[in-house]
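agent> step 3/5: call structure_predict on target 'Group II intron-encoded protein LtrA' (Sporotomaculum syntrophicum).
agent> reason: downstream docking stage needs a structural representation; sequence fetched in step 2, passing through unchanged.
tool.input:
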Amino acid sequence: METKLARITEVAKMRPNEKFTSLYHYINEEMLLLCHTEMSGNKATGVDEVTKEEYETKLSENIKDLVNRLKSHSYRPMPVLRVYIDKAGTNKKRPLGIPAYEDKLVQKALAKILNAVYEADFLDCSFGFRPNRGCHDALKILNHYIERDQINYIVDADIRSYFDNVDHQWLMKFLKHRITDPNIHRLISRLLKSGVVEAGIKYDTPIGAPQGGVASPILSNIYLHYVLDLWFEKVVRRNCRGQAYMVRYADDFVCCFQYEQEAKMFYQSLIERLAKFKLEIAEDKTRIINFGRYAAQLCHLEGRRKPDTFDFLGFTHYCSKSQKGKFRVKRKTSRKKYKASLLKVDDWIKVNRHLPVKELMGKLGRKIEGYYNYYAVTDNRIMVDRFYNKVKRFVFKWLNRRSQRRSFNWEKYQLTYSMYPLPRAKIRVNIYNLRHHISYIL
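tool.output (status=ok):
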């Protein structure tokens, strides 16, 4: 199956104007079994309340029945279960859609096919939910643009409730540029319009793609490829006298400009462009800031203490200098993400403080390693060390609340801690390592 998908990618790359007329047959027993194997077993269940283990008890029969329903077009996706999770750094909640298990398999198979077709079409400015591209890659390229090119202004933009406002009609039009298989169109339409269940009540979904759906990332990438990426590359950049770049991760993007006037023109054009496709910017989160090698000089002339900063992918970017006095873009964990991460760790220790100390520290250490893998990047050592010290004190606090009596003083805790220490932070990601990403900036 992987070989067949690779062949689709090869054809899509070699023939950029090719329209794929027959893809539906790839959603077969072999594909669905592969998707089942790759599915995580500890994910939350949808409205069907079926887990991977339960589905596996009659796996062959279930897969055959699913394939028969897909072939006869009698397959109907179940409504998506809508739950709400905390939004980092705020008191707001973020809606999350959880499909039924069988629908997850179909969506995963569909996502594999769509990725095979569109990976050759997506531009280098796009990094979200693509193979061999991640958040750190986006940060590296953004850093390169600002430090090495004549970038003086940043448009820090945010699309309001993007996943809730994807227009189905426009999405289907975009899909027809590459895929003319009516069966694929029918399947995607049914998935989009399957509805959501919240508090036991079903609601229709005439717009939007559920955030959390397995196929939602690739569908949103396709939508923004036509709405934003191609427009910026073919229209905006060509009409700019100075340098202009965009770095996008899913619906989060930053645009860099050499000239202030062109940044302002882009901002106005962006509002009109998004409105055409039923989207809008969150004006309270979108702004133009002076940022780059000359930002400090402009601040001095305007009587400001230091240049503005902007947040992107969980990091606050700010203007600074290297040890040799050269301009540098540095980054640290954003205040919102830092507080949210500490709150999660504090809650986890509180719930699991009954565990033996060795087991508690082992599990907590693995969680902290995951935090380091993302946030321990160039120039962010101070913030990850601060996170380590805070977590160490959280452990002390909650171990002392396991019973009515105080278990430790700080000196005794230090002795216990030396036996089961948490991992210390080391820089895991070098922002200046562009060896695998140089093609993006040529």
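agent> step 4/5: record observation. The first helix runs from residue 2 to 14.
agent> proceeding.
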